[in-house]
Design goal:
Rossmann fold, metal ion binding, alpha/beta, THDP-binding, seven-stranded mixed sheet
């Protein structure tokens, strides 16, 4: 069995045990038996390791194989269990949490839970996020016995789940013996943090609560060795790149999403300061470079770039791309006019210059920091940008009746005026990608979306996890109606946790992004009464406020109320717009991606 809410009274009973015992052990009781929870169990060791790497919230769905494990995980005072409505959202929540905290974790049960969460883990893998996926596994005595267990596909081989996770994690461990459990747990967690990828840890259900000498009360502190660049490779790469850039007339810098993995955001700012070059971000890297920086020119996204960023980047005679990922989405159907012989491609551990030399064992952060000291200042390309740039007009100031039906561009003009340093923006897959790219982020305002994997519904769970990790930010989440129908349940978890995001549900009656790639009757969905659904989730428990807006006047009233009177509540604002009201960027992007998808078969 799985599911349901793991009641906090169990944790209270565990912690109350401290009043009765002076030893290392804690009393735990349930209706049928008494057992002892020790500080030196496998579960407590795993919990301590999670806390040590920065995980204070564990997103979980209980099931019979992980119940004892959950007992011992939540016995750790610094680890809070957040019960989710389903495993997919638990995984998405861990993804969102990792984006803010640097690492996240989820816990599910064997196979039925594992194969439910695996889609979210695949997304975390594609986005380079270290997520610790913990699975409560079968009793250690059942391995190799030829027995058939429930929650399996009816054969005595228990490795189906493991083999699936091998494709979407960087390390997998199955703990069915205490002797090597300490080593396996530490190795898996270290690999996740070092490689910035998810890992899979399966714990036999009968071992989670068993003490072992290796799980001592005062364990060896968790630590990772520092990565170092090869000094000679670093020196050669910097000299070559500096020569390449200093000979250029109008060089530019472009930030990609892997600057996060490389922890190179500050070095990127220092490089922009030192060089004088204009700097753009690729779409997946929005939020990874401060947009108030004087050299920032916007998003480079081919034909759907923000105004004039395309012209400046593609007219450069040399461009340095740091942490870039070129896929069919980011390249707008492979239509970017970027020439390899003009590019310096800086990846987390490698630098490639033009069509020639490639330098390995060079950390991006080290390379950018050293390069900044070698470059001559060159502001030519930025001056060109300033000459041609015309600020985008505002729909707010257009002459229109505020009681007319609301347009999407009006919505995002209001959002632009709302943003401040205390906000974070989460954009769901769909037209929100494009509308949110056009937002100018104030200093301190954060931004997240799932560009590589693009799984609709991601934003609900990600909003839960990100908000849980960001008590200092008011999260604004933009979700289309089609995406929301996939994962809506865990808005109830946000209410239960006392979180206060503002969720803008953009209701245009279907899968708009799919319509622009290839239309058909399957892109039309059943309309829901979304505010009534959230009111049902609320059920007069916790703080939640909902409203529908159809006009600019409605929107202005709703946003003011959300920011002031309802600032401590989860606010759910359903924005009703016409089904054909889409951004210019989505129309262009959709046609190009459709063309790329429709290329005729070319046998190789």
């Amino acid at each position: 069995m799985r599911g349901g809410n793991y009641s906090k009274r169990w944790k209270e009973r565990i912690l109350r045990g401290r009043e009765f015992f002076t030893s290392d052990d804690l009393l735990f009781s349930n209706s049928s038996n008494m057992s002892v929870i020790s500080d030196s169990t496998l579960g407590r060791h795993l919990a301590r390791r999670l806390v040590e790497i920065g995980v204070k919230d564990l997103f979980a769905v209980p099931g019979d194989f992980n119940l004892i494990l959950l007992d011992h995980l939540i016995a750790e005072p610094e680890l809070k269990l957040v019960g989710c409505c389903n495993e997919l959202n638990a995984g998405y929540a861990a993804d969102g949490y990792a984006r803010r905290k640097g690492v996240g974790a989820c816990a599910v049960t064997f196979t039925v839970g594992g194969l439910s969460v695996i889609n979210a883990i695949a997304g975390a893998y594609s986005e380079n996020l270290p997520v610790i996926c913990i699975v409560g596994g079968p009793n250690s005595n059942d391995f190799g016995t030829n027995r058939i267990l429930h929650h399996t596909i009816g054969i005595p081989d228990f490795t189906q789940e493991l083999r699936c996770f091998e494709q979407v994690t960087c390390a997998q461990v199955v703990i069915k013996d205490l002797e090597d459990a300490h080593e396996l747990i530490d190795s898996a967690i270290s690999t996740a943090v070092a490689q910035s990828k998810p890992v899979y840890i399966s714990v036999s259900c009968n071992l989670a609560g068993v003490p072992h000498p290796s799980f001592s009360r005062i364990p060896i502190p968790y630590a990772l060795p520092h990565k170092l660049s090869n000094p000679k490779s670093l020196e050669a790469a910097v000299e070559h790149a500096a020569e390449f850039l200093n000979a250029a007339v109008k060089p530019v810098l472009v930030v990609g999403s892997k600057v996060r993995v490389a922890h190179a955001q500050k070095s990127m700012v220092d490089l922009a300061d030192a060089s004088g070059y204009p700097i753009a971000v690729m779409p997946a890297a929005k939020g990874q470079f401060p947009e108030h920086h004087e050299r920032f020119i916007g998003t480079y996204w081919g034909a759907v770039s923000t105004p004039y960023a395309l012209e400046i980047v593609e007219s450069a005679d040399v461009y340095l791309f740091a942490g870039s990922v070129f896929n069919d989405y980011s390249s707008v159907g492979y239509s970017l006019l970027i020439k390899k012989d003009k590019m310096i491609n800086v990846q987390p551990t490698r630098v490639t210059i033009g069509s020639g030399a490639s330098y390995g064992c060079v950390l991006m952060d080290d390379f950018l920091a050293a390069l900044a000291k070698k470059l001559k200042k060159n502001t030519t390309a930025h001056e060109n940008f300033q000459r041609i740039y015309i600020p985008r007009g505002s729909a707010l100031h257009a002459k229109n009746n505020k009681s007319e039906p609301l347009r999407v561009n009006q919505l995002f003009d209001h959002i632009q005026n709302m943003l401040n340093k205390n906000n974070a923006v989460i954009a769901e897959t769909g037209d929100s990608w494009f509308n949110c790219q056009n937002l100018k982020l104030p200093e301190g305002c954060l931004f997240e979306f799932q560009m590589q994997y693009g799984s609709i519904g991601w934003a609900v769970g990600a909003t839960l996890g990100y908000t849980q990790a960001s008590k200092d930010k008011r999260v604004l989440s933009f979700i289309g109606d089609g995406s929301f129908q996939v994962t809506c349940q865990d808005v109830s978890t946000m209410i239960r946790q006392g979180l206060n995001p503002i969720i803008f549900l953009i209701n245009n009656g279907g899968y708009t992004i799919e319509v622009e790639i290839h239309d058909g009757p399957y892109n039309v969905i059943k309309n829901w009464n979304y505010t009534a659904l959230i009111d049902a989730f609320h059920n007069n428990e916790g703080k939640c406020w909902t409203t529908k807006v159809k006009t600019e006047q409605d929107l202005q009233w709703a946003t003011e109320k959300a920011l002031k009177e309802k600032q401590d509540s989860l606010c759910f604002i359903e924005v009703i717009v016409h089904k054909d009201d889409t951004s210019r960027e989505l129309l262009e992007w959709g046609s190009r991606v459709s063309a790329a998808n429709s290329r005729p078969h070319n046998p190789q």
